[in-house]
Amino acid sequence: MTTANIAMSFQRASGVLLHPTSLPSPHGIGDLGKSAYEFVDFLEQSGQTLWQILPLGPTGYDHSPYIMNFSTFAGNPLLISLEQLEEEGLIERKQLTPLSEVSPDKVEFDRVIPHKMRLLKLAFDQFQHLSTGQLKVQFEQFCQEQSWWLDDFVLFMALLEANNGKSWNQWEAAIARREPEALRAQTESLQEQIQFQQFLQFQFFEQWSRLRAYANQKQIKIIGDISIYVCHNSSDVWASPDLFKLNPQTFEPAYIAGVPPDYFSATGQLWGNPVYDWDKLQQTGFDWWVKRFKATLQYVDIVRVDHFRGFEAYWQVPAGETTAMNGEWIKAPGDEFFETLGDRLGQLPVLAEDLGIITPEVEALRDRFNFPGMKILMFAFNEGAKNTHLPHHYTPNCVVYPGTHDNDTAIGWWATVSSDEKEFLAYYLGADDPDQIQEINWVLMRMALASVANLAILPLQDILGLDGRARMNDPSVNAGNWRWRYPTSHVLTPELSQRLRMLTALYSRIPTAPD
Fold it and tell me: Is 225 a residue of the active site?
């Protein structure tokens, strides 16, 4: 396959950014049940054909779907719909009690996790009593087909529990080093915990596949997200330590990932993830990464590659540093990597998250493969007419957002942005005064939809007109992120849907039926 036709081309369309944890539910966190289907219905009624989500993996400390996943291949069991388990006869209705006195607009993880895991364990106990049946057949088939990643993951999670959450490199040395005899012994002794983890993954992917099929039937595609890095305390690093730059004695990261000082932080962002040993990855033909993309494309239609610039060069910080300031850029084999992906997987439905410190080399890598980059309207009004996030600079092959999950909501941004940016935005729109601008959220959404960008993605918070309290993530703050959710599907009113649909149609983003 030639470089020119590796990337998939995108027709003019629009969609909504919303992570499933932000959906309403009676159990304190969004899930893959009724409200997810109602949200898909809202997208269809509003003329939207894209649903963008964040990574779906099981999260650890502080619940970031980007930094603290226990696996890049697994799904988050907290997203499993308990009501669907009840429909399958795995939970009795009387056991399915809602989480009481829970916040309607924030996920209280410390309460949600024990509540849901207790009920998921009840469902597993019931599942174990099924001797035969279609569900058992499907379970066995899933475990067999996904064994190439699932076996390592379920053993890792069982061992993590047996070791009270300690990082894998602090486990018994024979297990940390994956000596075959030690692994066989642990697999036998932890059989029930392993089967529970298999059950959770089976249920997650069964429910997710049904939801995705429902969306696809309504001509809605799912934009998934591949975060470039994985968590050190994960089955990925435990199973393949040679692919990461680790201390050979302690298995601690020798270097950690992040970015230097930027728009979000004066001291940079220190993510804490181990960086890849790209030389080793090259020697394997990037096999681990090929599997990762292949697995992701089993469950989503389009992949947003987070921190795309890390495939051209990545910021490497020596372990032990307290900020990301004292790092260095290390070249990565991006050209060879994406060529290999194209050869192995065919056309790549990829969006490139090309924000931050973007060099001509990063732009050349993106453009060589014709991947759409990202434009953020909240970044557009602080450098005058030359700012490339202003719509008059766009080319069709890009995706535009008012803001992403890392930005404030439009209303929150407008309340805190500088007076110079407000005045420039007013001037850009032809207004005499920033005070003339009403409903800034709809102003930015209209600008996005009206632009020449083939794809426009609107955060649901902006559609709902919410202020900064609905922000999903603030990269400059380590704690308290990833918790926002909307309280009830009733806020997705027919009037709101009609308003969004009219704007979407006005700017030719609703697909027309073939003649």
Answer: no
**pLDDT tens across 414-452, in order?**
999 999 999 999 999 999 999 999 999 999 999 999 999
CA dihedral 38, 124, 483, 407 (to 10 degrees): -70
Q: How far is it, in rounded angstroms, from Cα 269 to Cα 213?
A: 37
Cβ atoms 225, 303 nearer than 8 A:
yes
pLDDT over 50 (residue 379): yes
Which pLDDT does position 515 carry in this prediction?
42
- Token output for 124: 């597993």
pLDDT band at 344 (very low <50, low <70, confident <90, very high): very high
Q: What value does the mean pLDDT of the chain take? A: 95
| 247's tokens | 């201390």
Active site residue 406: yes
Cα–Cα dist 201/80, whole Å: 9
Residue 3 has pLDDT above 70, yes or no: no
How far apart, in whole angstroms, are the C-alpha atoms of residue 213 and residue 301?
11
For residue 1, the model assigns a pLDDT of: 58
For residue 463, give both structure tokens.
């559609």
Would you say 214 and 37 are in contact if contact means Cβ atoms under 8 Å apart? yes
DSSP letters spanning 355-374: -SS--HHHHHHHHHTT--EE
| 420 is a catalytic site residue | no
Contact 443, 380 (CB under 8 A): no
* Catalytic site residue from 236, 339, 406, 462: 406
Which residues of 231-306 form beta strands (DSSP E)? Answer: 255-259, 269-274, 302-305
Which residue among 152, 225, 236, 306 is the active-site one? 306
397 φψ region: left (φ > 0), alpha (ψ -120 to 50), beta (else): beta
Given phi > 0 = left and psi -120 to 50 = alpha, else beta, which region is 356? Answer: left
- Determine which one of 206, 225, 339, 353 is catalytic: 353
Give the chain's count of helices (H) and strands (E): 18, 12
Query: Is this prediction's pTM over 0.85?
Result: yes
